[in-house]
Design brief:
The protein has about 250 residues and is an alpha/beta fold. It has one domain (about 1-85, about 155-250): 3-Layer(aba) Sandwich (Rossmann fold), CATH 3.40.50. Helix content is about 35%, strand content about 30%. It has helices spanning about 40-50, 70-75, 90-95, 110-120, 140-150, 170-185, 195-200, 220, 225-230; strands spanning about 1-10, 15-25, 30-35, 55-60, 65, 75-80, 155-160, 185-190, 205-210, 210-215, 235-240, 245-250. The chain has a six-stranded mixed β-sheet with strand order 6-7-8-3-9-10, sandwiched between helices. β7 (about 155-160), α6 and β8 form a beta-alpha-beta unit. α4 (about 110-120) runs antiparallel to α5 (about 140-150). The longest helix is centred in the last third of the chain and has 16 residues, at about 170-185. It is globular. It starts with a strand and ends with a strand.
Length: about 250
């Protein structure tokens, strides 16, 4: 559905991404991993159409992503960014309902109530319904922001560090939800720092290092001790559980 060919991104004169080629396909969760500053969030922004490319091209169903009008793009993909700030004291319900905005005055607007209810349940935020977003904790805000994205019901979902600020249980819930979206036929791209989470849930893992695509493939093929030690500069042990890699730093 989305294809990046030799994508380069320059920000304020500084090259951030260099010649990245990657396909995003339906029915799959792709995890973007790599050290801080590697370019993961920049790549996600380029793939979602939120950041202009300085070289190469990003296409969606064969069309340049920059050629899509804002509303059309919003109906094709939803994006959870790291900075989900709401300055006004909207209630949780109102924030989640914002995810339905692209479908206003369309036949799909009849799904609004069900979409919002399902998103609240999937993110364990039903009990927050009447509270104001500005009064929530960081973890609660993250889950409500995810609910807004889920309520948008797009075929492509981009999640930038959705497990940040979440406790262990909710981290697992978020990744299970993302995996379920992929199994339902959607294309899901998630930026995650926890390599074991990526290994446990992603269908493919793309390792970004120094603004370049170092490797992409099945988690068990990509998350090797040699590669992780080379990229992160940290000695690790890889333990496999049910065929999935668990990354353990050697302390």
């Amino acid at each position: 559905m989305i294809s990046a060919q030799d994508v380069a991104v320059t920000v304020d004169g500084t090259p951030i991404l260099h010649g990245v080629s990657l396909d995003i396909v339906p029915g799959e969760m792709l995890a973007l991993v790599g050290p801080n500053g590697a370019g993961k969030s920049t790549l996600l922004a380029a793939l979602s159409g939120d950041a202009p490319v300085s070289g190469g091209a990003v296409t969606i169903d064969g069309r340049p992503i920059g050629s899509l009008k804002h509303l059309e793009l919003a109906q094709q993909r939803s994006v959870l960014t790291q900075e989900n700030q709401v300055s006004f004291p909207f209630t949780v319900r109102e924030v989640v309902e914002m995810g339905r905005a692209p479908w206003a005055r369309t036949a799909f607007s009849s799904d609004d109530e069900v979409a919002v209810a399902e998103a609240l349940e999937a993110t364990d935020t039903l009990h927050l319904l009447g509270r104001h977003y500005t009064q929530l904790s960081g973890g609660e805000k993250a889950r409500v922001s995810l609910a807004r994205v889920l309520a948008q019901r797009t075929p492509i979902v981009f999640l930038d560090e959705p497990t940040a600020a979440l406790d262990l249980s909710h981290q697992e819930d978020v990744m299970r939800t993302a995996a379920a979206l992929a199994r339902s036929g959607r294309a899901v791209v998630v930026v995650v720092h926890d390599l074991s989470l990526a290994g446990a849930y992603a269908d493919r893992v793309a390792v970004i290092a120094g603004g370049r695509l170092d490797s992409v493939g099945a988690a068990s093929d990509v998350l090797t001790s040699e590669r992780i030690e080379r990229i992160y500069g940290l000695e690790v042990e890889i333990v496999h559980r049910d065929g999935r890699p668990v990354v353990l730093p050697i302390r």
